[in-house]
Amino acid sequence: MTSHKIDWRFALLLGVLLIGISGVAEAAIPASSKAVKEEGGKYFDAKGDPTYKIGPDGKVDWYTFSGFRRYNGTCDVCHGPDGAGSSFGPDLTNSLKSLSYSDFQAIVSGGKQDVNTAQTLVMPAFGTNKNVMCYLDDIYIYLRARSDGALGRGRPQSHEEKSKDATDFENSCMGP
């Protein structure tokens, strides 16, 4: 008769892999990023900053999904796939660990220059680019989820439907 003992290390590894496949557990989301309020499908943290909502099945809110799409339409050219950085721009998943929402808005809209004897880093200003500014919260929300480790690399597998509020805002921001 064969004994089927499972090594505890194998069981632990299997558990970690299953969590990774099914999405991040709610407990893994930092308290500062937890959604405490929802308005028209958009979630906000206790400070009133936009944040993400990811279900136990990995389903993301519309704004996180939209942020993924918008990030990949503009930002990935310099900052690399999934915000992980490149030779042109820093790793935004690391930057957002210490960058406030208002600082993020200021840098994206006004640009940034960091010039010293070792390097020259220049972030162009996107303040007049509607394809960025109309979706700035979406991009921030997506990068915040990536920075917290709540969202893995690649396209989210499923997402909430786009709300009427999101459609109305997009139409008013992008104009006729």
TrEMBL record:
Entry's Gene Ontology molecular function annotations: electron transfer activity; heme binding; metal ion binding
Family annotation (Gene3D superfamilies): Cytochrome c-like domain
Keywords of this entry: Heme, Iron, Metal-binding, Signal
InterPro entries: C-typ_cyt_methanol_metab-rel (IPR022411), Cyt_c-like_dom (IPR009056), Cyt_c-like_dom_sf (IPR036909)
A Pfam family assignment: Cytochrome_CBB3
Signal peptide bounds: 1-27
UniProt-listed SUPFAM superfamilies: Cytochrome c
Region (Disordered): 151-176
Compositional bias (Basic and acidic residues): 157-167
Cytochrome c domain location: 35-147
Protein name per UniProt: Cytochrome C protein
